[in-house]
Write a structure and sequence with these properties.
9% strand
Length: 87
């Protein structure tokens, strides 16, 4: 039926004339036109978003005076970072 909707769009005929020429009930034909439009609208919505990949969040690096480095995950609690800085 969706192929008929596409055919109708290119025909230049009214919905009523197109449906009558193919022995389709007008109500049924309009249902499929509406369904096609709804599907196309959903496709436009789906393509208006860009899929993003997760970004790796850099961790926390503490460098001490003696050259030692300590790398921590970005979600390390602040009180732990404070304790490590004050070593």
């Amino acid at each position: 039926m969706l192929a008929l909707v596409d055919e109708w769009r290119g025909s230049g005929q009214s919905q009523k004339a197109f449906a009558a020429a193919r022995n389709i009930k007008l109500f049924t034909f309009r249902y499929w036109i509406h369904r096609q439009e709804k599907f196309e609208k959903q496709e436009r919505v789906n393509h208006s978003f860009v899929q993003l990949s997760p970004v790796s969040v850099p961790g926390i690096i503490i460098r001490y005076a003696g050259g030692t480095s300590l790398e921590l995950p970005a979600n390390t609690p602040l009180h732990v970072v404070r304790q490590l800085i004050n070593l």
